[in-house]
Amino acid sequence: MLRIAVPNKGSLSGPASAMLHEAGYRQRKESKELVVIDPGNEVEFFYLRPKDIAIYVASGKLDIGITGRDLLLDSGANAEEILPLNFGRSTFRYATRPGTAKGPEDFGGMTIATSYEGIVAKHLADQGIDASVVHLDGAVETAIQLGVAQVIADVVETGTSLRNAGLEVIGEPILTSEAVVVRRQGATEDHPQVQQFLRRLQGVLVARSYVMMDYDCRAEHLEQAVALTPGLESPTVSPLHNEGWVAVRAMVPAKDAQRIMDDLYELGARAILTTAIHACRL
Fold this sequence. Notes:
Layout: E1 2-7, H1 13-22, E2 35-38, E3 43-48, H2 50-59, E4 64-68, H3 69-75, E5 79-84, E6 90-96, E7 111-114, H4 117-126, E8 132-135, H5 142-145, E9 151-156, H6 160-164, E10 168-177, E11 179-184, H7 192-209, E12 210-218, H8 222-228, E13 236-239, E14 245-253, H9 257-267, E15 270-276
Helix pairs in contact: 3-4
Protein name: ATP phosphoribosyltransferase
EC number: 2.4.2.17
Main location: cytoplasm
């Protein structure tokens, strides 16, 4: 059986399980379940702390896992990213009191508090900056107020909590993270079960990003219509019973669907509709 690690809690847990369910895999019904066997797909899922997943995968005890890019890099484990999953996005940045520093180049001799010391230490070393890093678990904003550090490095979304603590974001982002599939470095690339698993997840990603669009248009407007809906390879075009009309079907990006429908209507297309895609293979 393919052995896969899944986050057992936190912001990655729910979306990861939802994606696996969409991909046709059995998932746990209760949060207390630590192992779920899916015999139909020959997969065994292990629900682990997100921070530990890269370490388990690197050890070779588990074949692949889902975790955050930030957690993978911070672990220093001998594992690598093989597929981004487009959820759990976050930005990792430095912050400090106004006037303390303009960017990392001013951090010399300072102490930086963070929950991700591996990422920060590497970032500082890569830029040749001599600064100390202290590890804290959560609520790192208070480190400056309590005099533990002059700078913090943390996940930033809106920046509201930092501003409320009297801090400002400085410098360029250290890292942009999202959920990713990871495997042990040097693992066999053509493992058939791994490839099937990745194809299923890629199918979910495409299905979430596209809709199927159908419409009728005059034959003389077909080339213009097809330019608006080129599809992946090309659209499907079928003649209608009424002479001079054709039916067109194509996949279009979901984010552009309403605009494309407007443009098609202006072109003279009618009976324009979209349907969700639940699964696909490209």
